[in-house]
Amino acid sequence: MSESNNQHARLGPSDSGRWFNCPGAIKATEGIPESTSGAAEEGTAAHELLEVCLLNNSQAIYHRGEEYNGYKMDDEFVNHIQPCLNFLNVQAEGGVIIPERRVNPGLWLGRDDCWGTGDVTIVFPDRVEIWDLKYGRGITVEPEDNLQLILYAIGVLADLTDEKRAGITQVTCGIMQPRKWHEKGPYRAVTYTMDDIYAWMFKLQLAANRTDEPDAPRIPGDKQCQWCKAKRNCREHSDMIIDELKLPSIQDREVLESHIVKPVGDLTGEELATVLANGDMLKAWVSAVEDYCKEMMLAGNAPEEVVRDFKVVEGRTNTAWIESDKAVIAKQLSNKRLKKAEIFKETLKTPTQILEAAEANPDVKPKSVENIKKMMHKPKGKLKVVSRAASGKEVPITIEQHFPDHIQAKPAF
User: Fold this and answer.
1) How many Å from the N-terminal Cα to the C-terminal Cα in the chain?
2) Edge-to-edge order in the sheet of strand 127-133
3) In sequence order, which residues have a C-beta less than 8 Å from that of residue 395 and are 6 or more positions away?
4) CA nearest neighbour of 123 among 95, 165, 156
């Protein structure tokens, strides 16, 4: 959730991937208002449901229909948060579980501008576990070298008494991502020794101090630029893309267009690898340019060259009901003499939704859950090219796929 109920820390743990890698990002983003999205607001609602359940030792299903952060808790929320609760309750056996714990890693970093709120902390006599809920479906979050979790861990350790801390030998940092498929499952963690934590504390302290420098450098990169509010006006970010993709000067439109639309088959192996490695970054940069120009055009202060060649239009949308309450809509339609079959359509829920509901339902026996699983299968996904460092099992490539014209058919006997 947010680093604080009222404000964000200057060096918040959730922003650590940015300021750790780019010291100049802090100064660059000063004065730029915070923004949010539907996905972020939905995530906040899921966090609130998890917190309420942990504080009240209740099941998620008991809160169906309640509203958190403007979202009504439906099956989607319940069926994804309940498995997290089941996991945490098993994980916390023998320990003390604390939801939404305010932590202050700044105590050990020598800072007064570094604090945050950990989603779930579990304290045992000999170890500490930090678990962070990621409710999004899009970006996979990994626990390894996760600076946000490490800072939460430092904050928890700093808050312990000397006697309690002396008994801690290891720290586990974990991610719960119930709506995003991962080969290792929705719950993933990495365990550090106390020496590991102290080593990270030293690195984080140096990085934090670098942000105080008047001329703190801007150092662009995938991690730090991804969510940076200043990237659309950041020359270093633009230069990085141009350098990485070996683009010509963006001031020469004809040369730029001829370079970008170069036939794919004419690209060298090195050029192909470069485009693949930087494609997401390039798309994000183009998106930032579009947003910036749109704001200027709507405000009436866009450059003449932009207004000359471009305009702002409304995107296509689907017809929607004015009333948001489906029950009210259905009643009104019924009064218009429409039949029930003309108003509603029955659809079968997805296998994942059914399985999550079955696992969350105490009346469904484990054997029944296993029988439900036997009714399902996972179709093969669409093939895509990703980095070697990305998650996912590599698709085996056979000789026949590489050289189909050189492989003779086996004789049939």
Assistant:
1) 66
2) 96-103, 116-123, 127-133, 170-176, 187-193
3) 383
4) 95
Count other Cβ atoms within 10 Å, centred on residue 234. Answer: 22
Cβ–Cβ < 8 Å for 350, 357: no
99 Cβ contact list (under 8 Å, min separation 6): 50, 51, 54, 55, 119, 120, 121
Residues in the chain, total: 413
Round to whole Å and give the CA distance between 219 and 24: 7
Residue showing tokens 């189909």? 404
Cβ proximity of 353 and 75 under 8 Å = yes
Can you tell me the distance from the alpha carbon of 107 to that of 181, in angstroms, rounded to the nearest whole number?
37
Closest CA to 350 of 328, 377, 316: 377
**Phi-psi category of residue 246: left, alpha or beta, with phi > 0 → left and psi -120 to 50 → alpha:** left
- Coil/strand/helix, residue 174: strand
> Angle 22-28-29 (CA atoms, 0-180°, nearest 5)?
105
| Average of per-residue pLDDT values in the chain | 86
Q: Which residue has the higher pLDDT, 284 or 110?
A: 110
Closest to 179 measured CA to CA, from 307, 95, 255, 76: 76
260, amino acid identity:
I
Average pLDDT over residues 127-148: 95
pTM of the model: 0.68
Provide the pairing of β-strand 187-193 with 170-176.
Answer: antiparallel
For residue 346, report the phi and psi dihedrals to the nearest 5 degrees: -90, 130
Q: Residue 209 above 90 pLDDT?
A: yes
45-65 residues labelled b (16+ CB within 10 A) or e (exposed): bbbbbbbbbbeeeebbbebee
User: At which residue do the structure tokens 């994942």 appear?
Assistant: 352
What DSSP assignment string belongs to 52-105? HHHHHT--GGGGTT-EETTEE--HHHHHHHHHHHHHHHHHTTTSEEEEEEEE-T
> What's the pLDDT band for 410 if we cut at 50, 70, 90?
very low
Contact 154, 201 (CB under 8 A): yes
For the segment 151-173, the average pLDDT, to the nearest whole number, is 96
Contacts of 222 (CB under 8 A, 6+ apart): 280, 281
Q: For position 2, what pLDDT does the model report?
A: 40
117 bridge partner residues: 102
Q: Are 183 and 391 in contact (CB under 8 A)?
A: yes
